[in-house]
Amino acid sequence: MAGALRGVVALDGPSGTGKTTVARKLAAKLGAGYLDTGAMYRVVTLAVLRAGIDPTDSAAVAALAGDVRVGVGTDPEHPRAQLNGEDVGEEIRTERVNVAVSPVSAVPEVRRVLVAGQREIIESVLGSVGGIVVDGRDIGTVVAPGAPLKVFLTASAEVRAARRSAQDSAAGRDSTPEHARASVERRDQLDSTRAVSPMRAAEDAVVFDTSELSIEQVITALSELASRRGLLGGEFAEARR
């Protein structure tokens, strides 16, 4: 373990910036917990689809939201996503969920329920582990506005589309760079213009462009940033002296 994170690192940004991979690896490196808030919205979206509800029917989605048991793991080495106790880690990454997750996520009641759950998870992990890396689209602005380190990852549309296409292909899902670009741009538009908790960088966030950087380079830079903020103890902090 390279160090011990104390506090919350809020990691926001659009699809294809490497956000989820960076968050998991950073948490593992710093001996911290990890929370993928996007997975929680995807689990609710899957529940909506399984129930035969139109994702754009806000009233019906809101009525279902409170009855869905969303389970997520906080171990960065073994992330999991559960719907009412069932492992749905693979299913929430399918194209039908990709298409439906933005309208479901825009429903105020869905956000109210999940944000409350996310804050509970964060407090629990802080109490047991001491630090947590949380990734999403409204962490620094809504979920954990008091986080001592907020980072907003960006990358060019071309790079993000290529990454998403490669990710889908590696997982056995049909994809092309053109389809991936249309998908990420659609998601960007919906997430940044929704009425409740739109995706945007917090005023005090560090905006970090990952277009020309490898995952390891981003993790190294963020680890050093956390150290400069005084959030790390143990071996990492000693090495920096």
From TrEMBL:
Residues 9-226 form the Cytidylate kinase domain. The gene is cmk. Its EC number is 2.7.4.25. It comes from Prauserella flavalba. It is found in: Cytoplasm. Belongs to the cytidylate kinase family. Type 1 subfamily. PANTHER family: CYTIDYLATE KINASE, CYTIDYLATE KINASE/PANTOATE-BETA-ALANINE LIGASE. The keyword GTP-binding does not apply. GO terms for biological process: nucleobase-containing small molecule interconversion; pyrimidine nucleotide metabolic process. InterPro entries: Cytidylate_kin, Cytidylate_kinase_dom, P-loop_NTPase. Gene3D superfamilies: P-loop containing nucleotide triphosphate hydrolases (3.40.50.300). ATP binds at residues 13-21. This is Cytidylate kinase. One of its GO terms (molecular function) is CMP kinase activity. It is an enzyme of class 2 (transferase).
